[in-house]
Amino acid sequence: MKQFVEKMKGKSAYAYLIPCFLVFAVFLFYPFVKTIYLSLYKTDKLGQAKLFVGLENYTDLLTSESFYNSLFVTLLFVVIVVVGSMLIGLIGAVLCSKAFPGIRVFSTSYALPMAIASSGAAMIFKIILNPTIGILNKLTGLDINWIADPKYALICVAVLTAWLNSGINFLYFSAGLGNIDESIYERASVDGATGIQKFFRLTLPGLSPIMFYTLVVNIIQAFQSFGQIKILTSGGPGESTNVIVYSIYRDAFFNYKFGSAAAQSVVLFLIIMALTLVMFKVEKKGVKY
Amino acid sequence: MSELILKNVCKMYDKKQYAVRDFSLKIEDGEFVIFVGPSGCGKSTTLRMIAGLEEITSGELWIDKQLCNYVEPKDRDLSMVFQNYALYPQMTVYDNMAFALQIRKVPKKEIDKKVQEAASVLGIRHLLKQRPGALSGGQKQRVAIGSAIMREPKAFLMDEPLSNLDAKLRAQMRVELSELHKRLSATMIYVTHDQTEAMTLGTKIVVMKDGFIQQADTPKAVYEHPANLFVAGFIGSPSMNFFEGSIRKTDKGADFVLESGTALEIPEDRAFALLNEYRNKKVILGVRPEHFLSEITAKDPKADYTKRVLNGVITTREMLGAESMFYLEEASAGEFAARLPVETKGRTRDEMTLFVDMDRVHFFDAETEHNIFYRGGQQ
């Protein structure tokens, strides 16, 4: 008996993990396993697994032109969004790192996108981009049907998403800049460095840890963008903005092909995981703490 | 190398408070100038104005006959060591030292030669691949100095570079800095609040208080002829003892009389001048601890020491090795310190009689706090 109690003492720690584990199990592990399970079946309209088909859903995907289009669109989308949102955030943060009158107004406006719901922003953009009454065409004097033209639709959605994501990046970068010791800039000035040299030699390396973190988060976030695409373009015109997440949604809830949707989810998961692992490998070389 | 001239330089914060006022100083080529003073006296601000990191509110700064008030820091060709060293945390020690040359597009071979050279002088060759985070305070300090001496700037500015080091390391670095100055024969401006550093390093000391220069002179001159009460008290450790009293005429000349009635005879050469202006007026007598003499050493037959005697009760006694510090309590003047030979006898609460070396004491005007016998100095 005594031995048993002794043994349990060390293991009581696991008991504290139970609540958290339960939440994870219900909302993460179960759906995850279920997705993998569904990806091996053909389903009925209610999403119940009916017929075991093995890897057929996957082979179908890999031979489907639409899926490759989705992958390409997603990749392009992610690149534009990540580069765009990080640039906007970084430039905003650097501009706002110096104190000047009215800085609060500027800081707030740079951070504001963080507080805007993606669907709300999409509605506003829909009006801005409207070919007849939209302010963009009015201001530029162009006559482009931004959302309905396959050439521009993806860029429009991506720029909107970049702007939406830039708010949180601005906050991260501002915090990162605040962590850089002011006196190294002073030393650099006395040493004879110009503003540009200071930015590339001091600011960027100083930001590299936070930059890496933001990059990982941004890539994952960009892969998962949905609301703005749904509202602004619904994957169209044609399939020009049909990113994987939207394709999953469409397959599952319009075409009732839950199996195929689940297979796409698994592929998306693999892509994101692989990317994240690669980034952590690169981090060890490139990021200096 | 070069000369720096500051003319009536002022720094004002928030349009009302002066941090530095009417700072005028000529710094010759190769001088080692020390700005010393208590914290908040404006010494760092002055240094930062020279570097260009603070704007000069009014006055002129001339470096090598060029007016530099509005010249960008990067174009002033100075180099600076900061109090917290300001090493670039993301760069290796090598890159830290090479930075100033790299941004000037100096050929890599030349940079490498200079870095290796400076690193061996400072004994940090084995650290070149490390990053600042892995270094100790002393090593960081060497790296900071190494980075500063890579170029041959017009002047080196140092802002309390030794203040973060422990006592032993500080003493060691002080010697190294002094040697460095001799080797480079460069103009150096050094800020410190430590009067020992000021005395040992400088060829010229600028004592500051509340934004004003109190005195600017060689260490010896500042020590032996302090311009006023503040300088007298600030320079020298332990600091000078001050006694309030008045000047009284006697048959032979004049006495300095403490409130308790104890009289100290003033040597003839000074008695006359003091009688003229300060007869029966309040003056402050300043005596350095080493200018007290115990009975053993006071056997100079020429002077009549018996009339230059101060009595006190010993409150504390400290052994310093070759010498002992005695802290005594005098009836009206309060506590004072005396540095006496170690073999001097005396225990706590003993009464002690000390002779005052009246040829080396200082008299200060009680109102203006100026040294009565100070006749300007070289500025």
| CATH architecture classification name of the largest domain in chain A | Orthogonal Bundle
Structural class of chain A: mainly alpha
* CATH-defined topology of the largest domain in chain B: Rossmann fold
Proportion in helices of chain B: 10-25%
Can you give the helix content of chain A as a percent range? over 70%
Number of helices of chain B: 9
CATH class of the largest domain in chain A equals: Mainly Alpha
Looking across the biggest beta sheet of chain A, what order are the strands in?
A: 1-2
Show the largest interface: A-B, 19 and 27 residues
CA gyration radius of chain A, whole angstroms:
24 Å
Shape of chain B: elongated
Describe the oligomeric state of these chains in a short phrase. heterodimer
Distance between the termini of chain B: 21 Å
Q: How many individual helices of chain A?
A: 13
Tell me the CATH superfamily of the largest domain in chain B. P-loop containing nucleotide triphosphate hydrolases
- Structural class assignment of chain B: alpha+beta
**CATH uppermost class of the largest domain in chain B:** Alpha Beta
